[in-house]
Structure formats: C-alpha cells, structure tokens
Design a protein that fits this description.
Blueprint: H1 14-23, H2 52-60, H3 64-70, H4 102-106, H5 112-121, H6 140-144, H7 146-154
Helix pairs in contact: 2-5, 5-7
Length: 156
C-alpha cells in the first residue's frame, strides 16, 4: 500500500489500519459497514454460564463505549450485538440496538456495581475463574481489554 501497488484492501486489523493512517496520510481510507465484531460465546449449559444473571452480569462489566472510543479510536458503533441492522452493511439481519426495548437495552449498560451485585445474588460473591478459548483470528488485544472490567466487577 505504501508504494502505490495496491488499489484496495478489504479489511485489516484495527490497530494496523490506524497506524497506517497516521504514518501515511496519502492513503485514502473509506469506511464501510461490516460485520466485524468480537463476541464471547460461553457454553450456556455449563456452570456458571448456565445462570442467566451471570451472563447479564458479564455484559454489565464490559464498557463497550470506552472500548470503541479508545481501542477503535471512535471507528465503530458501540452496540452490544453482532446481529444488528448494520451487519454486513445491509438491513434485515436484526433490529438496530437503539430500537431494542428499553428493558433489553438495560441489560447491556456498563454498570460494574450492578454486575458485582448480580454475581453475588447468583452465588458468586467473590466472582469466579474461567478460561477463554479464542479463535486464532480473534483480536486478542481487544478481547483482553474486557478482562480488567470483569476483574473489578468480581473483586470484593
């Protein structure tokens, strides 16, 4: 790209793209809606994730807006679902997060105090340990950014 032999590149890791934009301002960057999101999909049939309030507590412990603003430097939509209307840049996949019912949206708000309370009510007052198994294509740096939030929510 730097020597002018590439006309287009479909997708690259966020940090690579941001660095490229900083170091080579001649590159024209055009954003396109795409389905690049990172989800953590626990086995809901295995404890502690078989408890709905544990899964909701984990959602309350992820600060999606800050991750979008800092890690992605504002290039992204801080919505908590993979199947929203902008998935792949087309409608019909689901409903946009702003259109979700208020009670469902509330389950995805960043609220570490509520996360801690929900974990305690679910029987995990000191939190719990678990392992994350990530796809080799996953943006591991981004996913690791969730961990400090989870640790704060679980600490007593």
């Amino acid at each position: 790209m730097r020597v002018g032999k590439v006309d287009g590149y479909g997708s690259m890791p966020t940090q690579d793209a941001l660095n490229m934009m900083k170091t080579n301002p001649e590159i024209v960057v055009k954003q396109k809606p795409q389905g690049t999101e990172y989800t953590l999909d626990p086995r809901n049939d295995v404890a502690p994730f078989n408890v709905l309030n544990v899964r909701i507590a984990m959602q309350h412990a992820i600060d999606i807006k800050t991750i979008t603003a800092t890690y992605y430097q504002g290039y992204g939509t801080p919505w908590p679902a993979s199947l929203t209307e902008n998935q792949m840049g087309i409608g019909g996949w689901g409903d946009a997060y702003p259109n979700w019912p208020a009670d469902v949206q509330a389950q995805y708000t960043y609220d570490p105090a509520l996360a801690k309370q929900m974990l305690a009510t679910a029987g995990f007052p000191s939190g719990f340990n678990t392992d994350l198994v990530l796809d080799s294509n996953a943006d591991q740096v981004c996913i690791r950014s969730y961990s400090p939030n989870w640790q704060r929510s679980a600490s007593t």
